[in-house]
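Exercise 7. Given the components listed, write out the predicted structure of the assembled complex. Treat all entries as one system.
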Amino acid sequence: MRTRTQVGIVGAGPAGLLLSHLLALRGIDSVVVEIRSREHCEARQRAGVLEDGSVALLRDAGLASRLDQLGLQHGGIYLQFGGVRQHIDFRELTGGRTVTVYAQTEVVKDLIARRLADGGADAIAFSCTETEVADLDTASPVLRYTDADGNRHEVSCDAIAGCDGFHGICRPAIPPGVLTTWERDYPYSWLGILADVPPSTDELIYAHHSEGFALHSLRSPAVSRLYLQVDPDEVAESWPDERVWDELSRRFELPGWTLQRGPVLDKSITPMRSFVSAPMRYGRLFLAGDAAHIVPPTGAKGLNLALADVAVLAPALDALLHGDEKLADAYSATCLDRVWRSTHFSWWMTTMLHRTPGADEMATQLQLSQLRYVTSSRAAATSLAENYTGWPLLPRLPSDADHSY
Ligand code: FAD
Ligand code: DHB
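Answer.
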C-alpha cells in the first residue's frame, strides 16, 4: 500500500507520540509506526520524574489533565551517605522550582489516548515489523513497514523522525562516517521494583552505601518504586522479593526509620550507559530522544531530554515544510547543548553515588567528600538543584512569536 504523510515517525515512546501531537497542533499530518503492541507500550516501567519545563510543555500542549490530578509535586530530594540523610531543598535553592513524580507509563497512556482521539485509529500503527527508512537525503524520504495484519506499507514523507530508542533502526540507517558517537558503559546495573506499598518517604532518597547505590522513588501515595545497584551480569531470577527488600533495607538503614515492604508488582534489570551521537539530523531524517542519546538514569533526565528534543523539533519541521530550513539546520546544535549538560549531570550523579567494583578506598573518600560538599555548600547544592529541576524550555507552540518564519 502506498500512502503519503507529512512526517513519518518511527517509535511510539514519549518522543514520537509527543512529536505527533505537537505537529497535529500545528496542522501537520504524521503517522507513528511502533514495533510493540499498545498494551506493551503502556505497561513498560521506566521513568518517573518530570522537570518543571516538561510539565509546562505537556500542560501547554493540552495533555495535563491527568498529570495535574495525579502528579506529585516534589520540592527536593534526600541524599543519604555515611549514616546521615540530608535534604536538598530545590524550592528554596532555585527560587521555587520543583519536579513532578508522574510515571512515564501515564505520560505514554495520555499521549496515545490523545493521538487516537484526534487522529483516528490510523494515527499510530502498533505491532509493526520490518520498519525501514530510505531516501533520507532527498526531499521525499520513505518509511516502509509491515502492519499487524501483514500488509506492507510504503509511506512517502516530507521528513522522518527517528524516535525509536537506542536499539531502533533509524540511527543505523545513517550512512557510515556521518555520525560521531561518544559512549561510556558503567560497571553496574539497576534492579528496579514496583511495589504495592505506600512509600516510606515523602521525597526521593538517593543513597550511597558501601554495598552500592539505592533509590527510593514512588508512583503514587499507594505505590513505591525502588532501585538497587547490582552487578551488570545479574539476572532478576537471582533476586527473589525477600532478597531485594533485605538489601534495600540495609542500604537505606537509618535509626528510627523503617522501609515498609509489600507485594512486588514488577521487577527488571537495566544496564547503565552514557551515549551521545551527533549530529541529530541526516538530510530529512531527524533523531530525537534515546535514538540519539542515552544517559544513566541517576539524574532522572532521559524522558525529559526526549520531550525537550521534540519541543525543538516540532517548530523546526513546521518551518521546514513551509520552505524555511533555518530551525531545522539549528535543531541538532540546539538539542545537543541540553543533551551534553544532562549527560554531564547524569554522569556526575552516577559516579558520586555508585560503588565502582574494584575501586579503592580513596575513591570512596572522594565520593563522601563530594556528598558532604553538596549538602553543606549552598553553591554546590544550588548547582545540583538547578540541574535536577532542569533548564527552561523555549516555549515553541503555534501561538508563539517565533512562528513568524
Ligand atoms: P523510548 O521510550 O525507548 O521509545 C522508543 C519506541 O520505539 C519504543 O516504543 C520502541 O518499542 C519503538 N521502536 C524501537 N525500534 C523500533 C522499530 N524498528 N520500529 C518501530 N518502533 C520501534 N528518564 C527520566 O527523565 N526520568 C527518570 O526518572 C528516568 N528513569 C528511568 C528508569 C529506568 C529503569 C529506565 C530504563 C529509564 C529511565 N529514564 C528516565 C529514561 C527514559 O525512560 C527514556 O529516556 C525515555 O523512554 C526515552 O523516550 P524515547 O521516546 O526517546 O524512547
Ligand atoms: C525514578 C527514576 C530515576 O532514574 C530517578 O533518578 C528518579 C526516579 C523513578 O523511576 O521514579
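Discussion: The first helix runs from residue 14 to 25. Residues 395-405 have pLDDT under 50 and may be disordered.
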